[in-house]
Write a structure and sequence with these properties.
This protein is mostly helical. It contains 19 helices and 4 strands. Helices cover 64% and strands 4% of the residues. The two termini are 29 Å apart.
């Protein structure tokens, strides 16, 4: 009988770390006055997709289940038709590449690289950390008057994204807040839930100082949905904590400034005396629906909205929006999108594209919600479920007020990948131990058997 000790299981670094690096790169400051297009994080996301492909070839395993392949590949139908109908081959190819990156390739790579719930939580905490960094920069900008211009004063919190992407920080902070709320409402260790709750409450400050009405609405809707999905008792406790924090911030610490109160009030003034930004948005929405009526099935083609905008917009549309501050000089930024993702897709890809793309998003949401009851029954993975459903809810709500564009767009792709992992990953991958046994690594129950090692 041999007395030799069993070999120590070899631990390999998690393959999700390259995705964490993509999230971290978004915290780098952009050059003042830049165009706000693709950045280092987008380039790294392309490398992550390549890394995932090489990893799949080496492992020689089936990459996606049939359901996951159908759901993630569904947008390709409308995108291909819209790319063919673009005004130029260059515009069609660049638009196709951007849409594939955000809604197909990066989400699929994240789905395949996340091995288990520990990897999922690592990415969720990366979202919270990035939101904390951007929020701290944004609060500093507001306090010191070095932010983007808002009503003649340079105090709008925009983080490292600058005045050219005023929605960037609001998006990042919202994602981080949604992840923190999901982690706080889960059934993990008390210390983790307490830290997550503290982070969520702290992120309310930079979110308010972003003056982004669309992000406010989407975050409020998402938090209500997460509270309802977590259960009535948890919902009441969290609602009481949020109410107390709101009273403290607005009343005790003086965050209820006149401009902030005016911005909140303007949400209800979308029909009675709307400001110029609301008027411009209505005009852009009308232009998008006009393009759709012209070509209802396939739209005007990818990247076609700016070219057809003036032919369908009313005279109430201004020539652009003024951007200034946060280290950038004054410039007039043209309005090149309808600031509504659904109308943008409808205008450029037609009804076929909208049904394919929105159908993929709704399928993700339905699949994510279907797994929620099991998380409640087993008591494991509830935080992952709430984060996934929250990210999807926020994004689908925010798409009524925004569309893709700017450096923060790559974070949208990663969020869809996180949601796709919970909604579409196999039951073995979603288990607490993940696919450790299938990889020949010792799971919590003991070392892998010879049959399990042979199954690699």
């Amino acid at each position: 009988m041999s007395l030799a000790l069993p070999p120590t299981p070899r631990r390999t670094p998690s393959p999700v770390w390259p995705v964490v690096a993509v999230v971290a790169l978004l915290g780098l400051p952009l050059a003042p006055g830049g165009e706000g297009g693709a950045g280092p994080a987008d380039a790294l996301s392309a490398l992550v997709v390549g890394f995932c492909a090489v990893r799949l070839l080496r492992q020689r395993r089936r990459p996606l289940s049939r359901t996951a392949a159908i759901v993630l590949a569904l947008p390709v139908v409308g995108l291909t038709l819209a790319a063919v109908g673009a005004s130029s081959p260059g515009a069609g190819l660049s638009g196709l590449g951007r849409y594939l990156q955000v809604f197909v390739l990066v989400p699929a790579a994240v789905l395949l690289l996340v091995r288990n719930r520990a990897d999922f939580r690592l990415l969720a905490w990366a979202f919270v950390a990035l939101a904390g960094w951007e929020g701290a920069v944004g609060v500093h900008q507001y306090v010191t008057g070095t932010g983007a211009s808002y009503q003649g004063r340079t105090l709008r919190a925009v983080g490292t994204f600058g005045a050219q992407d005023v929605m960037g920080m609001a998006t990042v902070v919202s994602f981080g807040l949604v992840c923190a709320v999901g982690l706080a409402l889960g059934r993990g260790p008390f210390r983790q839930r307490a830290i997550a709750l503290a982070c969520a409450l702290a992120l309310l400050v930079p979110l308010a100082l972003s003056f982004s009405r669309g992000a406010w609405i989407a975050t409020a809707v998402t938090c209500v949905v997460q509270l309802c999905l977590a259960g009535l008792r948890r919902a009441l406790k969290a609602a009481a904590a949020a109410l107390a924090a709101g009273v403290l911030l607005v009343g005790g610490l003086g965050f209820g400034t006149a401009m902030l109160q005016e911005r909140i009030t303007s949400i209800t003034q979308v029909t009675d005396a709307p400001d110029q930004s609301v008027t411009d948005r209505y005009s852009l929405w009308a232009a998008a629906t006009g393009m759709w009526r012209e070509r209802p099935l396939t739209g005007v083609g990818l990247k076609g909205f700016p070219e057809h905008r003036d032919a369908h917009a009313s005279l109430a549309l201004s020539s652009g929006s003024d951007t200034e501050g946060a280290g950038a000089a004054f410039r007039r930024q043209p309005l090149l999108s309808p600031h509504n993702m659904y109308l943008l897709v409808l205008a450029e890809q037609g009804l076929i594209g909208l049904l394919a793309l929105a159908g993929s998003w709704l399928a993700l949401l339905v699949c994510a919600l279907r797994r929620l009851p099991r998380a409640h029954r087993t008591g494991t993975g509830l935080d992952c479920a709430l984060v996934s459903c929250g990210l999807l809810t926020w994004q689908l709500t925010d798409f009524f007020y925004a569309d893709i564009g700017g450096p923060s767009t790559v974070l949208t792709a990663v969020s869809f990948g996180l949601a796709a992992w919970w909604a579409l990953a196999s039951e073995a991958d979603a288990a607490p131990g993940g696919p450790a046994r299938a990889q020949g690594v010792a799971a919590p129950g003991g070392p892998a058997s010879a049959e399990e090692v042979a199954a690699r």
